[in-house]
Specification:
It is built from three helices and two strands. By secondary structure, it is of the alpha+beta class.
Length: 65
């Protein structure tokens, strides 16, 4: 994955989380056609950028606090 593709994925992932449409790493891995580990790395990268992304087990979604 090159830099531009990674930035697009980060932006799209952030948008999905903000809209409450990011259910699981499995779902995102299928949508992005990548591994669950790659999705976890993307989420970690967003956290490093300052987004407080959490996974809520009661609603089973990622969200920004």
């Amino acid at each position: 994955m090159n830099y531009n593709e990674r930035k697009k994925r980060l932006g799209y992932l952030l948008e999905l989380i903000e809209k409450g449409q990011c259910i699981s790493t499995n779902q995102m891995a299928q949508k992005f056609n990548c591994s669950k580990r790659t999705v976890k790395r993307l989420i970690d990268e967003l956290r490093i950028e300052g987004y407080d992304i959490q996974y809520c087990t009661s609603i089973k979604k990622f969200h920004i606090k």
